[in-house]
Amino acid sequence: MTGVENLPVTGGAVVAINHTSYFDFTFAGLPAYLQKRGRKVRFMAKKEVFDNKITGPIMRSLRHIEVDRDSGAASFEAAVDYLKAGELVGVYPEATISRSFEIKDFKSGAARMAIEAGVPIVPHIVWGAQRIWTKGYPKNLYRPKVPISIAVGEPIQPTLPAAELTALLHSRMQHLLAEVQDAYGPYPPGEFWVPHRLGGSAPTLAEANRMDAEEAAAKAAKRAQAGPTGPSEPTGAPG
């Protein structure tokens, strides 16, 4: 774990995390909490996590933020309120898991929150968690001795417009991910959890984007078929 000193000891900040695994949040909260800091990150998570009878009570007790596809403005406002109150709010700018394990295009929410609340964005990279559980592969929760790397980048002050701030955050996280990946290697060839450019069997970023688009289209068709009174599936939150 590197760069812990980049996290503010007090005051609000947007914790921006890359998204490669269903377990990213578990590791992304460690830099704020360990080394006698004791700070907790309030993560934004989709509504169905809160609706679950097991995870819902846990999420609410830890004061995480529910993201509802049909009322995104309320989630945004709740996050800004947390930030203004001095909390750390965890956000995945990619919105969904990156099947390529590279940095996808970013949504602008993290930047807009930081600007609205007047707090910095602190980039976080979690690497290795995709070996435990990622999209399209069975979970392997009991896999022993999987090394996990966590890197915290320098804070980015919200002094730019949202689009430019998002682009800067994207660039910073790309560079930070590359540094972490280089330090983590060497990589076994052909492994599912290794990016294509490093010799693995993960899809390229372009291939992964196509897969995501096909999945989104299938979900949209399913929602349309269900009709306005049918069940909805929240999107735009980690997953």
UniProtKB/TrEMBL annotation:
Pfam families from the UniProt entry: Acyltransferase
Segments crossing the lipid bilayer: none
Any Gene Ontology CC annotation: plasma membrane
Cleaved signal peptide residues: none
BP GO annotations: phosphatidic acid biosynthetic process
All copies of domain Phospholipid/glycerol acyltransferase, residue ranges: 13-129
Region annotation (Disordered) ranges: 209-239
InterPro entries: Plipid/glycerol_acylTrfase (IPR002123)
UniProt keyword annotation of Lyase present: no
EC number of this enzyme: 2.3.1.51
Keyword line: Acyltransferase, Transferase
Enzyme class: transferase
Molecular function GO terms recorded: 1-acylglycerol-3-phosphate O-acyltransferase activity
Listed PANTHER family: 1-ACYL-SN-GLYCEROL-3-PHOSPHATE ACYLTRANSFERASE, POSSIBLE ACYLTRANSFERASE
The protein's name: 1-acyl-sn-glycerol-3-phosphate acyltransferase
Species the sequence originates in: Mycolicibacterium fortuitum (Mycobacterium fortuitum)
